[in-house]
Design a protein that fits this description.
By secondary structure, the protein is mainly β. The chain is built from one helix and 23 strands.
Length: about 300
């Protein structure tokens, strides 16, 4: 009877360890939108992989391949690398939440995967015997611009752009973005299908859209004389604390002032911007009022994202 009790206790301990390992893989805290910009991070596990080496997922659960080196709403799941799956390390590491993340190539797909947990469990091991030949990285034309995340972009005149769930022409279609409509850059770029793809927020839908084979399907919104715009149609904004913002009938300082919107007040962005007089003007609605107000001047923002 004593031996049976010891055997049952051992099985219970193994089951608890397995449940703990599973929880550590799926219950990581969601990364904030600024996770990609996280600074110093001390990984719990020493790195055993390196750029140019091969790795293999340990037996058990698969490793997730993500678009960004962290977990969170703006880090899209691209694929799963099953237990025993072999990959090549092509970049990294990037540390977040006590884990080393590596940019890897797996079955022709590129993404980020963690080397192990932040509780001391390796999810991958170095792989040395007969590694498969990796697929060459996809070619993309040189980037002509790199907008800061959180800034405004728009679809160039002509055809609409498609918003997809993943950065691929085969990614699930979400919705179309009409020409000249605006959005917010939230992630990327990723190179796939010979194009750069950007993760964007378009009227509350987050997905990926292509910049085009010549980087001319979308563009940053830049008004001469003003810093980078951060608003987009279909979103909310607030007047920066302090002085009020004038709501005018037309996008010019010579137009009639309908009302002064007080600092901190919220408003709805309808369309825009119109670049005039060194400012970015947005068509907004504030209560019963409908008109145009400026996002700011020079390097000063008078409106903030809502």
């Amino acid at each position: 009877m004593f031996q049976k009790n010891r055997f049952r206790a051992a099985r219970l301990a193994h089951l608890c360890l397995a449940l703990f390992a599973l929880f550590s893989m799926i219950a990581l805290p969601a990364a904030p939108a600024s996770a990609a910009a996280q600074g110093y991070c001390a990984p719990v596990l020493a790195a055993r992989l390196f750029v140019g080496s091969w790795g293999q997922v340990t037996p058990g659960l698969p490793n997730i391949l993500r678009s960004q080196p962290y977990r969170g709403g703006d880090s899209v799941i691209l694929a799963e690398i099953p237990a025993g799956g072999v990959f090549m390390v092509v970049g990294g590491p990037s540390c977040y939440d006590g884990m080393n993340w590596w940019l890897v190539s797996y079955n022709g797909m590129y993404g980020w995967t963690p080397e192990g947990s932040n509780t001391g469990v390796y999810w991958t091991v170095p792989y040395f015997v007969n590694p498969p030949t990796p697929t060459p990285p996809p070619f993309c034309p040189p980037a002509t611009w790199t907008p800061p995340l959180g800034s405004t972009g728009r679809v160039t005149p002509g055809l609409p752009n498609r918003l997809r769930a993943t950065a691929s022409l085969s990614g699930r279609y979400l919705r179309s973005i009409p020409a000249n409509d605006t959005f917010i850059y939230v992630g990327g770029p990723l190179c796939a299908d010979g194009m750069y793809w950007w993760q964007i927020d378009y009227r509350g839908t987050v997905g990926w859209t292509a910049a085009g084979y010549a980087n001319n399907w979308i563009e940053p919104v830049l008004c001469p004389g003003f810093t980078t715009s951060r608003l987009a149609a279909g979103r909310t904004a607030r007047v920066s604390p302090g002085l009020p913002n004038n709501l005018r009938a037309y996008p010019t300082v010579t137009s009639f002032v309908q009302i002064a919107i007080p600092g901190g007040a919220a408003l709805n962005v309808v369309e825009g911007p119109v670049c005039a007089e060194g400012m970015a003007w947005w068509h907004v609605r504030y209560g019963f009022y409908d008109g145009w107000t400026s996002e700011g001047q020079g390097a000063t923002y008078w409106l903030q994202p809502g």
